[in-house]
C-alpha cells in the first residue's frame, strides 16, 4: 500500500487528541494532523517538553490550530482532570500513543506496575472518560499504538501488575497485548455505533522509547548502544507514524484492524497479530479487571 502523509484528507473542522505528543511518533502524528487542518491537542506529561513541542510544531506549521494540555497517564487523578476539563465537547480522534518501554520496575501514582498502568490502564481510563465526547463527534476514531513485541507474551490475568515476577521486556510485551485486547473489546462494544476502534504498530522506528530504560538506569553505555541501533536500523519517526496516521484518517479502516509496516519498516498495511489478541473471553476479563482497577465504566450500548 503506497500511502503517505500526502494522502491524509482535509481535516478542517475535526478535533484530535494525541497522547505523548512531545516527541517521536506522537509529535509527527500531531504535526501531520495539524498540517491537514485538524485542531490538535498535545496531551503531554511534562509542561517543559510539551511547550517545546508545541513551539516547534507552530514553527513548522504556522497555520496550525494546536494547543498543549497536561496529562499524566500514570496518575488517574490527572486523567480525570484532563477529561473533566474537556467535558462533552466533540472529539473526532483520540490517538493513544504515549507509553513506557522496558523500564525498571516501578509503580504509578495509583500503585499499578508502570508499564501496564501507563500503556494500558491510563489509556483505558482516558478513552472511557472521553467516550461521551467521542460519541458526540459522529464518526470518531480511537487509534491505539501497540507493538510487534506484543508477540512475546499474553497478559497474565492473575498477575496484571507483575507482582509475582517482573521481567521488563515481558511486561512491555504484555502491556502491548493489553492494547490489542482493549481495541478488540472496544470494537465489539462499539458495534452498531459510529465509533471506530483500531490499533497500529510502527515497526522498528526511532520513537525515543528505546532510550528510556538506559536513562532511568543512568547507564550511558546502554544509551549509546540504543542510539546507535536507532541510527543504523530504525525507521525515522516520520515513517513510523504512518500506520497511526493511516488508521486515524484513511477511508475504509476496519474496526479492530491492526495496521503496521509489512516488516520492521515499510508502508502501512494490514499486519498479522497474535491469536491471543483476538480471544473474546480474555479481552472481556481484561476489560472487567480494568474497570475494577480504574473505577471507570464505558457508556456504550454493547457493554455487559
UniProtKB/TrEMBL annotation:
<protein>
    <submittedName>
        <fullName>SDR family NAD(P)-dependent oxidoreductase</fullName>
    </submittedName>
</protein>
<dbReference type="GO" id="GO:0016491">
    <property type="term" value="F:oxidoreductase activity"/>
</dbReference>
<dbReference type="InterPro" id="IPR002347">
    <property type="entry name" value="SDR_fam"/>
</dbReference>
<comment type="similarity">
    <text>Belongs to the short-chain dehydrogenases/reductases (SDR) family.</text>
</comment>
<keyword id="KW-0560">Oxidoreductase</keyword>
<feature type="domain" description="Ketoreductase">
    <location>
        <begin position="14"/>
        <end position="157"/>
    </location>
</feature>
<dbReference type="Pfam" id="PF00106">
    <property type="entry name" value="adh_short"/>
</dbReference>
<dbReference type="InterPro" id="IPR057326">
    <property type="entry name" value="KR_dom"/>
</dbReference>
<dbReference type="InterPro" id="IPR036291">
    <property type="entry name" value="NAD(P)-bd_dom_sf"/>
</dbReference>
Amino acid at each position: 500500500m503506497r500511502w503517505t502523509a500526502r494522502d491524509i484528507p482535509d481535516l478542517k473542522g475535526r478535533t484530535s487528541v494525541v497522547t505523548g505528543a512531545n516527541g517521536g511518533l506522537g509529535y509527527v502524528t500531531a504535526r501531520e494532523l495539524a498540517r491537514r487542518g485538524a485542531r490538535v491537542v498535545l496531551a503531554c506529561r511534562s509542561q517543559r517538553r510539551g511547550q517545546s513541542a508545541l513551539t516547534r510544531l507552530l514553527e513548522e506549521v504556522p497555520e496550525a490550530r494546536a494547543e498543549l494540555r497536561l496529562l499524566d497517564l500514570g496518575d488517574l487523578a490527572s486523567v480525570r482532570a484532563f477529561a473533566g476539563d474537556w467535558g462533552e465537547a466533540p472529539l473526532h480522534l483520540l490517538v493513544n500513543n504515549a507509553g513506557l518501554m522496558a523500564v525498571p520496575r516501578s509503580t504509578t501514582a495509583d500503585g499499578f506496575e508502570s508499564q501496564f498502568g501507563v500503556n494500558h490502564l491510563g489509556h483505558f481510563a482516558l478513552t472511557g472518560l472521553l467516550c461521551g465526547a467521542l460519541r458526540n463527534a459522529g464518526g470518531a476514531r480511537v487509534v491505539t499504538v501497540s507493538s510487534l513485541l506484543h508477540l512475546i507474551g499474553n497478559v497474565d490475568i492473575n498477575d496484571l501488575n507483575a507482582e509475582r515476577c517482573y521481567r521488563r521486556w515481558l511486561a512491555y510485551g504484555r502491556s502491548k497485548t493489553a492494547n490489542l485486547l482493549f481495541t478488540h473489546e472496544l470494537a465489539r462494544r462499539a458495534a452498531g455505533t459510529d465509533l471506530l476502534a483500531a490499533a497500529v504498530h510502527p515497526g522498528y522506528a526511532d520513537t525515543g522509547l528505546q532510550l528510556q530504560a538506559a536513562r532511568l538506569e543512568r547507564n550511558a553505555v546502554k544509551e549509546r548502544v540504543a542510539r546507535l541501533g536507532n541510527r543504523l536500523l530504525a525507521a525515522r519517526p516520520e515513517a513510523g507514524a504512518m500506520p497511526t496516521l493511516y488508521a486515524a484518517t484513511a477511508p475504509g479502516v476496519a474496526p479492530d484492524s491492526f495496521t503496521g509496516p509489512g516488516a520492521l519498516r515499510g508502508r502501512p498495511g494490514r499486519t498479522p497479530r497474535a491469536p491471543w489478541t483476538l480471544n473474546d473471553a480474555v479481552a472481556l476479563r481484561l476489560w472487567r479487571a480494568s474497570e475494577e482497577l480504574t473505577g471507570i465504566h464505558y457508556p456504550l450500548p454493547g457493554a455487559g
